[in-house]
Each structure stands twice: as structure tokens, then as C-alpha cells.
Amino acid sequence: MSAFATELRLQQLEARLGQVEEALRSIAPAKGGGEDDPLRRLQSLQKNLEDGYSVSSSELIQTQSERFEEALFTSEGDEIRDGITTKGPCYELQHSVWDACLFIGLPTLSKCDSVLAGLLLLLNMITQIGFVVVVCHRMLEDILQPDQLSELLRFRTNVAHDVKYADLSGGRSMARQVCSEDDSLQWANMQTGVIADLNDYISIGPILALLAIGCWLSTTLRELFNITGFVSAIHRYPSGEITVIAPGEDGDSGSVVITQMSTFRKFMLFIFVAVPRLVVAVSLALTGTKYLANTLSLSDLILNAVALAFILDLDELVESAFMPRRARFLLDALGTLPIARLDVPGIGRLRGGFQERGKNLLKLALLLVGLSLAWMCLLQPLYDRVQLAHNILCSGRQDFIYTVNAATGLVEATTTFSESVPLTANQKSVLRLADLDLFSIPDWYEQQAIEKFQKDGEPAILHTADDSEEANMKLLFQLLMLDKSDVEKAAARLPCADDAFPAGLVGDRLRDMTNNTVSSCAELAEKPELCAGMNMNPLRSLCPQSCGCDDPITSAAAAFATVYFGCPKMCMPQRASSIKLKYAPCTDMTPAQMASSSYMKRYFHGLYQVKLGNEEIGNASTNEYMMNLNNSYYNLLPGPNKTESLKEAGEFYRSGGWHRAMAAANFILGPGIPHPRGLTGCAFLDSEEVKQLAGGDLCFPRTDGDPVVSLRVQCPVTCGCKAEERECPGTCPTD
To answer: Which helix (H) or strand (E) segment is 71 a member of?
Structure first.
């Protein structure tokens, strides 16, 4: 190898000597004793350089000082300007695992170093591709997609204004606290974090994201052009059976050049270096751009950009940490790999300077195209979704809270404060108890009046805002109590009037409860059977007069004309003092009257819902009925097979047959089982047999808290009514 290098060195020196002699002969004497035209001299020097001849540096400096805007280019594409030579199109070797693979298997590296370099190449490929896979599959989930926006919308329409989650001490809704990023908020931390990110992103997010993507695309474009330069440089070398590395032309022992490259090495470099490197670069360019575009947090945006750059530069980190020193020395010694100049049809081979500048313009054009696509395809849609998410959470009216009235089913709301109110009396009491060491600072001490409420006496337990304020703390706490109340407690504060609530709200609620069959209290009065449903509490609360909550005799609500099932408590005094009740006859309804009475049908249908409407309660009631029937009235069971008859009686009762029989004035204890004493009408209903089998006492006086009304008005004689007793006609005797 040393003899070959010496011979090659002599050939190079002879060639350079011939170039110098030719250059000296080409210098023409000055005409007329004057100086040469600088342009002609420059053109002559340019021709000599393009032909491969060398020129003196002094002549170059003198000529270029006269024509300083011009540059000379050698046959290799090197640019000479102001006597300084810049190499032509070339691939600049870097300290990376990819570039160090040039020397694997060459005599310039030991076998151990080559094996280690190969392992480092494999490690780098696995690591970089692994990072790419993780980013692709775990970190590219689109944010603020329709399902997430729907969840935010449900949050705004449910939790954000719910009285249960409001700051009642400060008089603010959760929506206001979330949107103002209140540090005292104990709920909805996720939504508060989202709002903080949304506010930051709306202000400057797209611009910062575009800058980050621009920096990232510039980094990946540099890598892509390095890959193309590497492939072009490898392809330019003459192919042979072996790869030849020789000392540099200038005789510097620290410089080497590649004069020939084997076909096998070219193939291996392309397969194991260029292709994996290209896959990593393209994948990172695409996934990294989408990853940055999907980053909502501005702080995370910067960190993510740095993390992506770390993945791309991982090959340099591995090389600097583990690559053998000999391979690193060879990278410095080789320096660059020349790239062939482009041959443009009609123009010829481009000058090296033009080729490099054209490459830079192409980079800039690709960068602008990439930024445009990132804006249109990623950033603009994300900004629209961010704006929509912000509108969902914080646009419109924020300062109100609501709850659902347990009796009416309507949403009731009240206004809250837009800003934090001063400390409440209880908070002042807590502050005095804590005995904090407070002092004044600008814009805080006077506002909170610290000194005043630290020295004042005991505060009031309840704090009510001034009448001039739109929001009122008393209303807020009343709403909280309403939220915690059941139907009976909620109905206790309702007025006994059909027009107590806005007609529009009542109509919507009625339509919802009746499957769009009723839209007003007047229409409900024409369908009294709707008021007699056990689950129709809102109808009785919204339309108490139409449902007959104040009617003691023929109430449309029938058995459910009670506060327990939604009739306003204010209707009970009107019911007790009703003119109808005062002048009602003190006589029992006859079986014929019962059979034709729509009230009795609604009444027994209501009793069926109470006793048998719930599966668990219905099963228990049926078992009790069958047990009592078997224990006390077994002999009355029809047919020879008493067990089968008992089973049929149980099925009859469970299906509501007995209650339907009562509504039709068919006074039986069960199918084919008459009353043992032959009683009918009111006497049948008040008999001990019926009380034992069906349960309950229909003559027992009721209070406002009882679930169902009695039949004392319909059966005053059987129930032993007195004129002044509850639920009794006023015409009954007084003693």
C-alpha cells in the first residue's frame, strides 16, 4: 500500500507541475505597454481553472480586487473569491454513526473497531426507529375531537352551572371559576387546565407552533439533503473491486481521500445507511410536524421540539460517546465527499456556486411549502377546535346556577356574582379564630378591610347581599336547600295555583311528561287520568288546580292528591275548607255509584301502583296476600285443587286483577272467592277481611304527610265520620 501511495503522489506532483507551466505560457504580454483588461484577465483565469490548470494566488487576489463582484470556479466546482477557495459541491462528513459506517471493514480500522461500529449502527437504527414508532402510535392522538368537545358541552350544561358544584361562599358558579382559572377551585381541575391551555393557545399558540414547526422542518430538511448528498457522493466514486483510501494531494499526513469504492460497499452503504436514515428522517419529519401541531400547551411545545431534535441527533450522540477514536479521526481526515455537478440540458454543467445556491433556494421553497401545508392541514383546524372548545366552556352567560325541582321537574336557576364577593361573616369568624398575622400591601389591604373585620365583633351567621345587587346570597342557599329536598319538601313551598310558573316552561315540562299529549294545564284538566299516575308528581305540582289537589271529593289526582306525591302543601287548607266538602251528603256511595265513578277507577288504579307497581314491593305484597288467603280463607278457595286455586289467586292479585275488580265494583276477595259475610260497597272495603288481605285502612284519617288519601268522603257512614273531623263531609253529625 505504501508503494502504491508513493507512486500516486508522484503522478499528482507531475500533473500539477504541468499545469503551472501551461498557466505561465498562457499569460499574454500587455498590449501597448498598458495594463490588461481585468475582465479579460478574469475570463482567462477562469478558463485555465475550468481546464484543470492552477494559477498563482497573488494573481487571483490582484484580479479579483479589480473585479471584486466576480468569482472563479475550478473544474471541480471549487469557488475562488478574494483568493479564498471554497470547496465545490460536496457532502460534509459529520461525527455521526451514519458517516462512520464508511470505514467499516476497511484496513484503516481494526476488526474490533469495525465490529463495534457495526453494533453502534444497529443500536442507532433500533433506537431511532423505536422512538419513531412510539411517537406514531402513542403521541399522535388528535386533541379536541368531536367526542371530547361533546364531553365539554355536557360539562357546561350539567356540572358547570349545577348548584352542587358552585362556590356558594363566594357566590360564583363553577363555570365562572373555571373560566377565570380560580386557584381556590376544588373541582374540575382537568377543565381548569384545559382553559389555561386554551387561553394561552388562542393568544399566541398558532404563531409559536408555526415557528417550532419551521425550526423542525429546517432540521429535517438539512438531514434529507445530507442524505441525498451522501448518496450522490457515494455514487460519484469510481467502482472497483476494493475501496482505496490514499493520502491527500497537499501532502498533509492528516488528510486522506477516497479514490475508488467497491460496488459491494456502495450497495451496503445504500441499504444499511441511506435507506434507514431516509426512513427515520422522513418519518420524523411527518410525525414530528403532526406531534408539534397537536401540542396544546405552549411550554410542552418547546420541550417537544427539543425532544424531537434529540431523536434526530441521536446518531451524533451515540458516535461521540461510543465510536472508536480511529473512526472519528478518519472522519476528520476525510472531511468531505465530492458531489458531481448537475448537468442541465442546454446549459451544461452548473458551476458549483450556482448548484449550492440552487440547493439552498430549494430548501427554502420546501420549507415554505411545508409550513403552508402544516398551517392549512394541522394548525388552522386545531385553532378552530380550540376556539370552539373555549366557546363551549366560557362563552355566553357564566353567572348563574341551577337545580331541578324535585316536585315539578323544572330547572330553576338564580344569578351568581361575576367576581368574588367580600369575605362572608362565617369566613370572618374563621379568620378571627385563626388569628393570622396580616399586614397591608398595595391593592389588597384596603380592599379586604382586614383590620376592620379582625377587630369587629361576632358576625352574622348568614350573609345577604344588598337589595341593589342582582345576585343574592340568600337565594343561593335557598337553591342549595331545594337541591337537597325530596318531592314532599319541595312541594311544601309551592303555591296552589296553575299559573304559578311561566306558561312556556310549564308547557315544555307537560309535553315531556305526557309524551306530547298535553301542553297546558287547561288541556290536562280534560285528561284527569294523567294526574292519577304515581310518577306524575310534576303534573300535580305544576297544575295543582287542574289535578284537583284542592278538591276533596272528585280530585283528578284521586289517591295521589297528597303533598307526598307533589300536590302543593298550600292546597291542603283549601281542600279541608272546601265548599264541596262542607255541603257534601253524609251518605255512602252505593255499589252502582262506585261502578260508574271515574274517581273510584282512578283511585284503585293508584292503589295498585302503590302496592304492586314496584317489582320488589309487589312481590312482597303478593306473598302476604297469598299467605293470609291460605291461612284464613283456605276453605273459600274454589275447586278441588286448593293449591292450584291459591296460585291462580296470587297471579290474579299480582296482575292487578283485584284492584280492577274494585274499580268495577266487583267485590270479591279473589277469583271465585266472595266475601264470607256477603258484604259489598263501603262495608266490603272497610271489612277486616279486606284489611287483612289487601292491607291498609281506607277509613283511617290521613295527614298531610300520608302517601294516599282515604275514602272517608266516599264512605262517611261506614267510616263513622263526624262533621268536624278531617276528610269528612260537613253535613255529618257532630257527635
So the answer is: none
Residue 559: count other Cβ atoms within 10 Å of its Cβ.
25
The boundaries of the domain holding residue 421 are 415-484
SS3 414: strand
Same domain for 362 and 228: yes
Per DSSP, helices labelled H in 27-108 are 38-50, 57-66, 97-100
Q: Given this model, what pLDDT does residue 225 score?
A: 92
* Length of the chain counted residue by residue: 735
Which positions ≥6 away from 225 have C-beta within 8 Å? 359, 363
**Does residue 642 sit in the same domain as residue 702?**
yes
Count of domains in the chain?
4
- Residue 239 in 3-state DSSP? strand
For 435-450, the pLDDT digits (tens) are 666 666 666 545 455 5
Res. 243: pLDDT tops 70: yes
C-alpha cell at 187: 373541582
263 shares its domain with 306: yes
The DSSP letter of residue 68 is T
pTM of the model: 0.63
User: Cell numbers of 341, please?
Assistant: 455537478
Note the maximum CA span of the chain. 158
DSSP-H helix ranges across 294-337 = 298-312, 314-322, 325-334
Residue 549 in any domain: the answer is no
Does residue 404 belong to any structural domain of this protein? Answer: no
pLDDT score at 722:
93
Q: 453, 484, 515: which is the final residue of a domain?
A: 484
pLDDT at residue 145 in the model: 87
State whether 314 and 445 are in the same domain.
Answer: no
Residue among 471, 375, 361 at smallest CA distance from 421: 471
- How far is it, in rounded angstroms, from Cα 15 to Cα 276? 41
Whether 606 is covered by a domain: the verdict is yes
Taking the C-alpha atoms of residue 615 and residue 604, their distance in angstroms, rounded to an integer, is: 18
Least confident piece of the model among 33-37, 38-42, 351-355: 33-37
Q: Please write the tens of the pLDDT for every residue from 554-596.
A: 999 999 999 999 999 999 999 999 999 999 999 999 999 999 9
Residues 148 and 195 in one domain: yes
pLDDT value, residue 419: 73
Look at residues 86, 110, 141 and tell me which one is the last residue of a structural domain: 86
Same domain, 40 and 126: no
